[in-house]
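=== RUN LOG ===
request id: a7f3
mode: sequence -> structure
chains: 1
length: 133
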Amino acid sequence: MNFEDNLRGFYRCNIQLPFSFSIIRDKEVIGPYLGRTLNLGGGGMYFATSCPLLQPGTLILAEFQSANCEETLPEGMPPGDFMARVIREEPGADDPNREKRYCLAVEFKFPHKASKNDIVAFLNRYEAHRKSF
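=== RESULT ===
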């Protein structure tokens, strides 16, 4: 298991999870779009997507999906929708046979601390699950 310190008080776990997200713009919800985490922590995530509409400051509503996941996961994906704000965009590696990819860092915006705890608990279960193989 490879955890990286993200300098925000949370550790990030290198894990690839599919998720869907919608963009929240004014009173409009745009989407859903698909993304895949590159790393995940209690305070945010770094992910790749083909959606060209994201930039720093954009709010998204993300939901993790267990279907079509390449990782071997423990039970209990993080539940519910997660509000997040894009804090950084980086050019992604383009595949000539696929769509353009964008890599983005987001920080979670939770109204309750329980949501952060849900993600941290999932990552702890994931780490224990990976060590058992």
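=== NOTES ===
Confidence is low (pLDDT under 50) at residues 1-7.
Residues 3-131 form a domain with the Thrombin, subunit H fold (CATH 2.40.10.220).
=== END ===
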